[in-house]
Amino acid sequence: xxxxxxxxxxxxxxxxxxxxxxxxxxxxxxxxxxxxxxxxxxxxxxxxxxxxxxxxxxxxxxxxxxxxxxxxxxxxxxxxxxxxxxxxxxxxxxxxxxxxxxxxxxxxxxxxxxxxxxxxxxxxxxxxxxxxxxxxxxxxxxxxxxxxxxxxxxxxxxxxxx
Length: 162
What we know:
Elements: H1 3-12, E1 22-26, E2 30-36, E3 46-53, E4 64-65, E5 70-76, E6 78-83, E7 86-91, E8 95-98, E9 106-109, E10 116-123, E11 128-132, E12 137-142, E13 145-150
Antiparallel strand pairs: 1-2, 2-3, 3-10, 4-11, 5-8, 5-10, 6-7, 6-9, 11-12, 12-13
Domain Cupin type-2: 52-121
Keywords: Metal-binding
Protein name: Putative cupin superfamily protein
């Protein structure tokens, strides 16, 4: 392989079967292994992750995005998509489309006895606000800005201003 080919491969290709997975465990509900695939690539507008959720567990809290759109491709296993207050069965081969906005809070739950493996693809819109309906939290982020708080804690517009 030429130097240029090696450089292109490093910038453009990730094999999700060969990446190092980070273990996220927060008992009793959350247990998954995953990797953000687009980090370190030439991608500027797309994000991609691989996630493997342990049986009976979840990968992340119920949430929604105000800017980013997401797509999930179920690669192995089966589970439940909690979305907009409903529970929908999902299985290998299903592709899930989640547009931004408060209509589609979502979460994938492994309701089976085997691992649930899926690929997440998203736009990387910034600034972004994520809302977590179960806990009343929000996450606001942009380049060089990242704040996690609660929506119920509000301030007067002029608070702290001279």
